[in-house]
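Q: What would this chain look like folded?
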Amino acid sequence: DLEGLRRYAWLIGGASLVSLVLVLFTNPINGSRRWLGIGGLGLQMTEFAKLALVFSLAHYLAINQSRLHDAWRGFLLPLIWIGLFALLAIVEPDFGAAMLLGSIGVILLFLAGARLKFLLPCVGATLLGFVVLVANNPVRLQRVLSFLDPEGNRQGTGYQPWQALLAFAAGGVNGVGLGNGRQQNSFLPFAHTDYIFAIMGEEMGLVMTLFTVALFVTIFVAGLMHVRRAPNLFQFLLVTGCVLLITLQAIINLGVVTSLLPSKGMSLPFISAGGSNLLLMGLLVGVIINSQRTWERPKPLVRKRALTEVVG
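A: My prediction, written as structure tokens:
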């Protein structure tokens, strides 16, 4: 019962923030602190923070629907809540997750009815701050420069994007055959996670890559058509956030692998290796299917007593 879960919205959001803080005290892996060991499992807490933010923010905006035109209750307070999640992701550091969290939060604010005169300056200031952070981080700055000239940096920081492009070129239309690709043999780093789409392009060709893109487009279009039937603002924002978490993450991954966006580690939903992201995707799909069954359920009919019974 999605409405029944609302009573735990702040508990879920608060617990997620605590987990993001605890992650900062763990040992770094590949230069980042993103994993928290729970019961022998390493969970990437930023993945679950995405759903926690959507759930808690949808609840807040729904109960304050009449105050969304107010600068404090309708804009600054939810913006501070979004900023806490994004800031903790940046500290890890995980700029991609921070960008995704911030984008989803602002979109939900806009859909809930927040004023554009508040949102637009905020978006501009956030983008400017993001540019400053990247400019002062040598590794990420070099990634942006490599994106502008992938061939010229193919032996340095542009090595992965260049190898991904070679994989697509080798695959052609039909691919070289499942398991016959060369790039998975240590030529393309993170071939099983962030760059799995390039391996698909090499081994299964243009047909499979276009089919994969079509599936994500279908999820997005079907999601937009579905949320129009939401019974209230909370469920509308919750399901919309779930759909956007799937599709925006897919857009970022596909853009990075095809060199349309600067290099950034982000999983391809449902396909990349990684238990935390796969578990998150399962939770998101579960919420969407839950809402579909609930919203389409017919209302129970109240049987009227016969007139003779009333008279009697």
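The mean pLDDT is 83.
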